[in-house]
Amino acid sequence: MLIPDHLVYAETHEWVKVEEDGTLAVGITDFGQEQLGPLVYVEMPAVGAQVRRTGECGIVESNKTASDLHAPVDGEVVAINEALVETPDAVNDAPYDQWIFKIRPAAPFSTEGFLDAAGYLKLIS
């Protein structure tokens, strides 16, 4: 199971990467995509949408189930990965290369309340 050290993780199986411009890229973890199976649909929040930390802001769906996406912080959605509309299963192939949406946080980002790679591994073990 792949769990990169340079990301932080939510207990709801999203990963977060701080980009150079201060935005946050958000995707689902390898464990999360494995539990869902091959994705057939990704519903992303609209660009410009205001999201709240832990609030539902999208859905990832496979043939067997669907799971909510949660915002890691309060902020504004500034980008969505439009390629996933046509190829949602790209998340299954490379979950850490396929961000789903990006947020401009309303406040400076803090890793408090998130798990590092070791903490996330403990959560899913």
UniProtKB/TrEMBL annotation:
Q: Which family does it belong to?
A: Belongs to the GcvH family.
Q: How is the cofactor bound?
A: Binds 1 lipoyl cofactor covalently.
The protein's required cofactor(s) are namely: (R)-lipoate
Task: Tell me where in this chain the Lipoyl-binding domain is found.
Answer: 23-104
Subunit structure as annotated in this protein's UniProt entry? The glycine cleavage system is composed of four proteins: P, T, L and H.
Which keywords does UniProt give here? Lipoyl
What is the role of the protein in this entry? The glycine cleavage system catalyzes the degradation of glycine. The H protein shuttles the methylamine group of glycine from the P protein to the T protein.
Q: Which residues are modified to N6-lipoyllysine?
A: K64
Gene from which this protein is expressed? gcvH
Q: Which organism is it from?
A: Herbaspirillum chlorophenolicum
Recorded hits in PANTHER family, A to Z, give: GLYCINE CLEAVAGE SYSTEM H PROTEIN, GLYCINE CLEAVAGE SYSTEM H PROTEIN-RELATED
SUPFAM superfamilies from the UniProt entry: Single hybrid motif (SSF51230)
**HAMAP family, per the entry:** GcvH
InterPro entries noted in UniProt? 2-oxoA_DH_lipoyl-BS (IPR003016), Biotin_lipoyl (IPR000089), GCV_H (IPR002930), GCV_H/Fam206 (IPR033753), GCV_H_sub (IPR017453), Single_hybrid_motif (IPR011053)
What's the protein here called? Glycine cleavage system H protein
Query: Which domain of life does the UniProt lineage start with?
Result: Bacteria
